[in-house]
Amino acid sequence: MTMPSGVGIGWRQEIASLLAGLPDLRWVEVVAEGVMHGMPPALRRLRDDGVTVIPHGVRLGLGDAEGLDAHRIAHFADAARITGAPLVSEHIAFVRSGGIEAGHLLPLPRTREAADVMVANVKRVQAELDVPIALEPIAAVFTWPEDELTEAQFVTEIVERTDAMLLLDIANVYANARNHGWDALEQARAMPLERLAYMHVAGGVENEGIYHDTHAHRVEPEVLGLIAELSTHTQLPAAMLERDGNYPPASELLGELDAIADAARMPRVSTQVSVGV
After folding, report:
1. pTM of the entire predicted model
2. Which of 44, 160, 209, 241 has its CA 20 to 30 A from that of 4?
């Protein structure tokens, strides 16, 4: 399989029929934990038709100070082999502590000690993988008082020390900037874009003064603007839409894919389909 290029989308069973009808779809991302024991038939047909499938993990907990679960590492590596993926991705985050599962991606304190933990855990996973890994900084509604580094410095140190690739979620950048008073474009440009594998794009909503990256709302125009600004200075290899519920009509979903393509200066995915969602 080739590395992701152009515009892709997160594969979900709810929109499988729509994605099967996109003749120009080059790649999709799937939750790694959902394919650890085999791919759904509709996803397998896409892969067999030449669509690249990228497993995206959510439960490894690469920032967990207590170490990683060997079974989860093995399953994660199996997901890459099952899908025939050219790379995998996971988050710069922790998901458990003291034996308690948070059920959510939690932000690490941006300290050198936390960076050391991430680096050690990533290297352990890399030892089991046959393909590269891309790491994604998350959206966080709070920061830690112990922070020693900016987010970009923290991410750069981790990916450079592990020789990992970067998965830049531009919606996360926007959410963090909006919630913490940062400059979103400045934050995005400070990331190690020379290691960029692909980008996530998603929608969100503000609730009681906090902007939440929901994956269930329309992509904000400001997020598309960030992509357009980045594309004037950096050649963006690939970008994808994350949608995890509240699915709109097919025409609207395809319109978002086209909007991402236009902002990123990439070819559009064909919208000449009649499948509804």
Report:
1. 0.95
2. 160
